[in-house]
């Protein structure tokens, strides 16, 4: 294997860019999160990774994970199909890759489903990183009550007016009400799907999905043609959680999928909020329970949500305090590996800190975001 | 002043027992909590305290507090009136005095309104200590919604069936629904009034109050004839909180009196619980807010309430663990003043421990309840 230059990413970004074709091929092959493949791509680049997959030149784990579809290469057709719908494939090569939204995955176990997305298929014209810069996820039961629909509309509408992007899963009930409320006030909204972006799921939301693409984005880590499936909904929920500053559950029954999204939010360090409801309403059982157990903070309106999600939303504001004591783990090791003055490259920092390259890559944008480090053509350096 | 023998309490307990007449006189004079008077009575007994009040032989604080009504002595008439209604005056002399329910006051500041009650006027045949041994207070807005009335009835009814006494303030709305639900299932209930027990307040609850007296107790620290007043409602709320194992707020608006009861419960170390409601309902604003702010734990049913209040309810059960490390402050000093074997009297313990007599009296029942000490005719001693 040889290491590809990352500067390939600055080449042509059209449908037939070989690097992008490689990303598209890999996305189709793994169908969902695959931390091992993400690491391989980090190490050797997407083209070399694609070659290794095609030629079965892989570790056992990665071999098993890719064997079923290694022979399927519809990359060019997939890219063309999505481009025809006004969409594109967004990868870590792109400026709009929501890098810092995916940092939390570095803390998760390395199990099959807990990794960051390899790449994102996107319908919509706005950059994903920009769309998700200040975002709140609002989720809940498909069987929303009138109360649930009403409160969802109030909270989502008020947040969208206030400039927050509303992220949800495009399902019936609370999800749909959240997207619609954002659209209704001319706000931004992102739908994350558990199938290819060429599929309208649920079919009854086909028109809604078109509107979302026009006023925000429809996003999926699954290649075009992928059908929805149980495990994909669960994986999708982790993206709903990760692409926002916090998750609000408006209504959820005892065994609602929303609790899975909440579980991801907790793993990823996102604030979890829930709207209470009558203790006599089955649709509020899950929310009331999560509040009771301390899994979610009670919120009654958009103001409460902003109060909870605010500190991250305000991260670029004047109130950010640089506190070295707040650093730990890899972030602290990487920071300390930087000299007092002068830049260092990612691989150099990996060697100096003893932190794996992919982790160094993950923590640097976080450190930058918090004002500890800066980056220019020469590399990364400490900020005063 | 001379120290009266406490054995007076073993004398006649009828209307014309001079010691009881003194308690009744003092209760009428101070109209509500008066820590300074409680301390004086602890020191010199009620008769000597009554003499001192009548003859203005008092400290400045106590002089001011009692001057307005020192000349009013309706003790005999008050005792006769209440006896005629099937009631009585319960004092610290009596076995039914809910001593341990009032211990929490020892931790409060010594301000005018924060003391224990001097004595309690009671209608109803059951001993107060027994009635309040396993008790839950349920309070809330007078303007309860249908939802609030329904949930109150469910929770209070289920708790009462389970053997818990329902304590409340006999007001319209949540209070009334709580009392009624307990009566409806043949359970026990206690109404604490902000006026004399001879007054039916609110008048619309006259029949309800009679039923409560027949199936539990109507209780007040105010002598007969005392009319309800703002400050008496606030003082009454502290008794509602103290006479139970925990306070449940079912519905409360933003500025509900229930929040005052909650504030007392927190000061007195009682668990505070609140039932959530629709965020669109003004009657649930206070409850939702208290849950959000961490002032109250969300409860949805009687099971949740018992889970929260249970550890105190189970205090006599087999699960009580004696842990010396749990003792602190006066309790620890008093315990350590006891010899390994053999009894000591209260004054002796006060001298040995350096803890004031009234505090020694307050902590001993607590220590007994927790199994650290025992008491017989010869005095208090350590338990193995």
Short overview:
Chain A has 384 residues and is an alpha/beta fold. Helix content of chain A is 42%, strand content 11%.
Structure overview:
Two copies of one chain form a homodimer. Chain A has 384 residues and is α/β, with parallel strands linked by helices. Chain A has three domains: 12-73, no CATH class; 128-313, Rossmann fold (3-Layer(aba) Sandwich), CATH 3.40.50.450; 324-382, Winged helix-like DNA-binding domain superfamily/Winged helix DNA-binding domain (Arc Repressor Mutant, subunit A, Orthogonal Bundle), CATH 1.10.10. Helices cover 42% and strands 11% of the residues of chain A. The first copy, chain A, is built from 16 helices and eleven strands. In chain A, the strands form two sheets. A nine-stranded mixed sheet of chain A has the order 1-2-6-5-4-3-7-8-9, sandwiched between helices. In chain A, strands 10-11 form a two-stranded antiparallel sheet. Chain A is globular and about 60 Å long. Mean pLDDT of chain A is 87; it is low at 1-12 and 312-321. Chain A binds chain B through residues 147, 150-151, 275-280, 284-285, 288-289, 291-292, 297-301, 304, and chain B through 147, 150-151, 275-280, 284-285, 288-289, 291-292, 297-301, 304.
